[in-house]
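Dear colleague,

Thank you for sharing your sequence with our group. We've completed the structure prediction you requested, and as agreed, I am returning the results in plain text so they can be pasted directly into your records. Please verify that the sequence below matches your submission; if there's any discrepancy, let me know and we will rerun it promptly.
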Amino acid sequence: MDAMQDDKNLSEIQIEDQQIIDNKELNLLESLIPVVILMCLLAYNIFFVEGQEWFGAYTNQYILIMGGFVAAVVGFFNKVSFATMVAEVWENWKSVFVPIMILFLVGALAGTWLVSGIIPAMVYYGLQVLSPEIFLPASVVIAAIISIATGSSWTTSATVGIALVGIGSALGIPTGMIAGAVISGAYFGDKMSPLSDTTNLAPAMAGTDLFTHIKYMSFTTVPTILVTLVVFAILSGTIDTSGSADISNLLASIDNTFHISLWLFLVPGIVIAMILMKTKPLIALGTGVVLAAVFAFIFQSDVLISLSDSKFEAIINSVLIDTNIETDNDKLSELFSSGGMNGMIWTILLITCAMVFGGVMDAIGALAKITKSLLSVATSVFGLFASTVVSCLGLNAIASDQYLALVIPGKMFKKAYEDKGLAPENLSRTLEDSGTVTSVLIPWNTCGAYQSSVLGVDVTDYFVYAIFNYLSPFTTLLFAALNIKIRQLIKK
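Please find the predicted structure tokens below.
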């Protein structure tokens, strides 16, 4: 059968580089079938399977493929061709090619920064500067500054985030708390930075300009980050670190294992400088790997020899596979380990499988149908804001992609906001408050998978501590409910 005959019920809504497929044949119940089955399978694995490995180490990946298969069956029954589904999945795969390359480089970066002594040096000096009493709020502030400067929460986690997790772990602070603080700060910076891709995408979808968007967004974002800082300050004051090793012993262990020098900070300094100069992330991170390899030869000959008979082989291994550096302190030995590029395979496969599910759901028109249904129940101003929030949250879970969580509601809800007499910055702010920041809370979303992999902390461990991220949607809804800073359209 001709594919075009099958797909005559489909229409495409083109938005910049994204297209949304609308399917007139599909109803809401059919659209939700793959979602419900996916959530049930994931829930069963989480709550009822010991070790959460129902089908082995790649259980979540298999479940996402199953969800994609169910969505494909729904599509066949609604006259969507196999070719259309494959094409959409391929488009999704193309969209995550660069993030996947970044993940591979981050794995290489973690390995080379470890054997070169960069991460140990960060931990060494960080232990002397950051005490447990101020560590968590300080981590939020540090991550926020770097993220505002670079416009990227991903880069922030791959550089200072890794270091902060290392320092905090050595201080005896739970890794979930540290990751939550880093992610809170990183996503605040990502939201407020004019260099951020999502901060540019949201106003483009809503029909306002960048700086109006940032200024208007600050009304909800600043109170949320202040609450976040207060909570982390309280948490810092209540952490029991009495069981952690004495700092002097930790410092001595690091000093005995590595040649610690301030010169090592040249490498992260150069990487961050390159990103600030708008160098492509792949080039900046690749440069960081090469420089770290050179510095490893210069500063850490003993470490390289302890890892392999050949220094060059030790470097290559740090890039590709597991590296474990033994110290005279068990805590540090556990900390100074890296999986290299190989350690990123699980995450990359998760993203790839999530794109299969999201791609098929988009191809059959289910994403558009679910969003339209949410829009149809938004009869009041608050209902409109609430529907936007739910739509963004849902798409982060269903489509597994942060950008689609901004693009689809942005397109679908734009006219509804105009009809209610609301300025477009209301929509752009809500998209960011609920779409951008919550992506990291979904384990199979590209953002959640990336952050958990890079920081070495499961989403389930940092979820409750990613305070800024889950407070943001509530803040925007509170402002809508109380009619605070809800800007009206100026009538010409």
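Summary note from our side: The chain has a mean pLDDT of 87.

Kind regards,
the structure core
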